């Protein structure tokens, strides 16, 4: 018989697992890993909101995508265009970024799998006599290691020609040059930290769902058990 067991700790772990998976996925897909050096707008380019000249803009560069402005000569204005600069894996700008993409993708795949499974932990608490929380916590720890490897390798690719075109000639491995780090990089770091927090917290979720109070309510014949 399936017993639906909901506790504060198990629900918090489930929500954190889902948030972490989405945060890492959004960061990976974003082009805002590097913010390039400011490029001045021409005096003919006008801001539609203020009526004055447009402010200098800063293009952004991701692991496989970028955002920049394209000119419309007939309208004397520019529009921001975002999309992948690499049509396939081999066209990613740096070998280090290719490795980063592999490690991040592996970590994200594991996190998304755990996030999906975590939704069903209210009904299923064990698989083959092993706690599903402990198994998921172990997988989150492994995913965190993949994410760390990807984030360590990413700055090593700042010396590639693509990064230099955005960050200036002084950019090199682990040196930003004229660039700054975008929100996607910080989101990936924050998601990695939360991944390890989730891995540790999974043990608390397992303890909460197998406590004496839960066992007492199961013995009383309750199918829906909600505990603080």
From TrEMBL:
It is a multi-pass membrane protein. One of its GO terms (cellular component) is membrane. It holds the Pfam family L_HMGIC_fpl. Keywords: Fertilization, Membrane, Transmembrane, Transmembrane helix. It is found in: Membrane. It comes from the Eukaryota. The keyword Hydrolase does not apply. GO terms for biological process: single fertilization. InterPro entries: LHFPL (IPR019372). The chain crosses the membrane at residues 12-35, 96-120, 132-154, 183-203. Belongs to the LHFP family. This is LHPL2 protein. It comes from Peucedramus taeniatus.
